[in-house]
Amino acid sequence: MYNNNNKKITPQMQLFLENLLLDSGLKFTDEFTKQKMIEDLYFKLDEFLGIVIEENLSDDDLVEYFNLRVVNTKAETLEKFLKTKIPNFDNLISMAMLEFRNVYLSSLN
User: Cα separation of 95 and 48, whole Å?
Assistant: First the structure.
């Protein structure tokens, strides 16, 4: 699956977003509409995570991170860079995803 920026949605992220939609109680009449919603949510989640990452990098590291992204560095290399530069990176991302989930679900009420 791909999002609006043609970034591949990982199976883990696909599952997270499918569960988010399930928890939302939204019903879909067809798979295309459901997948479109997942892609839209992925785009928003990707932007949200990007902000969280940017807020947790030093100015110098942020410049280096943007430079790595400009040259289309592999995802694995970017992740290694971020794990080196941001203490508890995995926990930070997990907490950000939980926050995204909570904000999304509360916006439906």
Answer: 12
